[in-house]
Amino acid sequence: MSIWQQLRSSVQRTTQLVLGLSIVTNLAMLALPLYSLQIFDRVLTSSSMETLWMLLAGVLIVGITGICFEHLRRNAMTELSFYLEDNIFPALVKRINLPSFNANKRELLEDYNFTQKQIQGASALVFIDALLMPLFVLVTYFIHPLLGLFTLGVNGLLIFMVIVKYQWQLPNQANLQKNRATNQNLMLSNSSALAWLSITSNSDRWFSDRKNDWYKQINVARQVELPATILANLNQCIRWLAQAGLPTLGAMLLLSNEITIGGFIAGLIIGGKTFMPVDALIGNLDSFKKMTHFFKAIKPILNTAIDNDPAYQAKLKGNVVIQDLKLKQAHQFNLTANSGDTVALVGPTGSGQDSVIRQLMRYEPVDSGVIMIDGVRLEDWDKNYLSQSIGFVSGSILLPEVSIKSLITSFGQVTTTAAIQAAERTGLNGKLIEWDLSYDDIFKIDTISPSLSQSLRQLIALTAALATNPQLYVMENPETHLDMDSMSLLKGILIQEKQRGKTIILSTQSRSLLQLAEHMVLLNNGKTLFKGEPNEFETVKNTMTDQRGLQNMNAFYASNQPSMNEHAGVRQ
What we know:
This protein is an alpha/beta fold.
């Protein structure tokens, strides 16, 4: 059973339970008006205290029962919200973080939070109460048919308003908001050019060119907002008709002796209650629309099965083979790294070396080709086990806002002693002292200055990777944001890990890190221009046939001399 099927089953069970409880709750709501009817029609006419006490006892029993059932149905909604939080949210986050997910994550998570709050706050009960509106109409019909027909007619008009608002007003308003946001973003994106427009005296012409677009937007707004105003006014008229018409009709029936005083009072109370659910539904219709949209959006996501990864686990030896991996311009990439090798992937920014790293870490999908680790296809490995067995460092991926200790211990998977020993090797321990931070502090990008926070992030990631003592390191530009001292420590760590027989695959823009590698791969726009030992490049580059690629490589080499990190300080 997929996660979506589990959610649907849970929602169906909760809906059935709440619907049954709502029937009892709404029936209990009839107790007070019917109690008033009996007081006027039986107690006052008979002057019987016994009858009064019996009616009071009955209404108390029914009222307490209704309160208990109301508590139960609200508790059922709360339990459903907890189910969403405990089971659906983790599964949803896991799936939207897959490389293949292309929708707006922020918007989806905002819709989830909204839906979860609506369910937890029992706002969704409005829609179930609206379904039980005919029950109150039926009771008013029994008091007098005209009262029943009047309440039925008013609710019919309100339901018509619901349909019009749901089918027409809300979609058009949503499109209008998107158009406004687009135009606002256009203005903001061009705001930096307003100075140039002003200096060159082109401001008036620029605004004039956009008048037609603005007038079109205003006309669209009129077509949406004016009918929406009419609908709102019509809704107010229907409310006034209900509030004035019901007592007027009741009074006419009372004067003609067709109902009693008790029937008149009960009719007013019950008739008023018939309007409340549908009227509340109109006010909460945008919430209902948003919740419906959310469940439609997550259906295909939760139907995605990702928990069936083959559970292949074994101690890594560090042998990596990549065959026919598709990069830019449909170029194929091949690589063989034996246990203990250090391989550097270099080239101009955007040439594909970082894509190789991310596909190897399953952060990006492998569209074609094969990646094998220790002779086993990447997709056949237990994903969590493999990820935790590789020392991964990235200069671009953000870290969660938790304690530094949690990060460097991989949330308790590594002992604190091992993590602190790794922190001493990477220099993180000294930096924390220098920046007046502790391991219990929460890491935030604004904890210290932006440049130092980025350096801290990189040191934390390097420490976390080193603390696990992996056989295989995969690094994406590990030199990013490091100062001279940290860069020197990084080179020393890589040398030590090489001597210990660890496999290291890294993409880098640093010539000094490149010199540590036994093997290098030069990439340009997805194409492999050179593969071999770094010191061989100078001797073979003159035989390369790709002159444009050779020019790019020479430019890359010229801009990445060994002195780059020794003199540049922090690389931004």
